[in-house]
Design a protein that fits this description.
Layout lengths: L4 E7 L15 E2 L2 E2 H11 L5 E6 L4 H10 L5 E6 L4 H9 L7 E6 L7 H14 L2 E6 L6 E2 L5 E3 L7 E10 H10 L7 H7 L6 E3 L10 H12 L1
Length: 223
């Protein structure tokens, strides 16, 4: 058993690429997408508490969902901010006694208790843990005219996912100090010179960004 860990599920995005569809509550095999992440945290023995951050528009809907499910670990339902990092910071403000914080995007429904446990085991040895998978495609860097300027060595490229695990106090400090826009918490920790260590996740742990992603996930999850 690892040290006390809190799961922080971020689900406050605006779903701008979903053409008006709220991806967090979009149905996936008959269940709202967000419910899969919560269930994985609930079923993971290494997670002691769960905090969920949602948009103001989804606050009431989320509260009704939580009351209808048999989830015992949810300790806080928090309204998020304009940026992802604002939402994370608001969620972090509710954590007071947890050594580790496991941050996960609510739009990644294929997360499993095993991946979460793996992330915490990795963090306990390496000080942090960021889910990622080796890039399979050749990547090109292009300029504004779409001309290729460089082809980086694929051997060193990994596609980053969530969960991302950091010591809670270090993460809270980072969110106090870093004000510029970042795309994830790993980038924030990197900006402060902190060690960021990746572990190999699963290629199926994709993030729902478009309606096509939901159809792909239905195929994957139906096996």
């Amino acid at each position: 058993m690892t040290a006390h860990a809190t799961g922080l599920i971020i689900a406050a995005g605006s779903s701008v690429r979903m053409n008006g569809v709220d991806k967090i509550f979009a149905p996936l095999l008959g269940r709202p997408i967000i419910s899969y992440s919560i269930q994985a945290m609930e079923d993971c023995l290494d997670i002691n508490a769960i905090i969920v951050v949602v948009s103001p528009e989804n606050l009431e809907k989320s509260d009704l969902l939580f009351k209808s499910e048999n989830w015992s670990k949810i300790t806080s339902l928090v309204v998020g901010g304009k940026r992802r990092q604002d939402s994370v910071r608001m969620g972090l403000s509710k954590i007071h006694d947890s050594h580790w914080t496991v941050i996960h995007d609510g739009a990644r429904p294929c997360i499993t208790p095993e991946i979460i446990s793996h992330s915490l085991n990795h963090a306990s040895v390496n000080g942090s843990a960021v889910a990622a998978v080796p890039v399979k495609d050749t990547i090109k860097i292009v300029d504004k005219s779409l001309n290729v300027t460089k082809t980086p060595d694929r051997q060193h490229l990994w596609a980053v996912q969530t969960p991302q695990v950091f010591e809670t106090k270090a993460l809270q400090y980072a969110h106090e100090k870093v004000k510029e826009n970042v795309t994830d918490d790993a980038s924030m920790m990197e900006a402060l010179g902190e060690k960021v260590s990746v572990f190999q996740s699963e290629y199926s742990n994709i993030k729902v960004t478009t309606k096509e992603d939901i159809r792909l996930l239905e195929i994957l999850m139906n096996g």
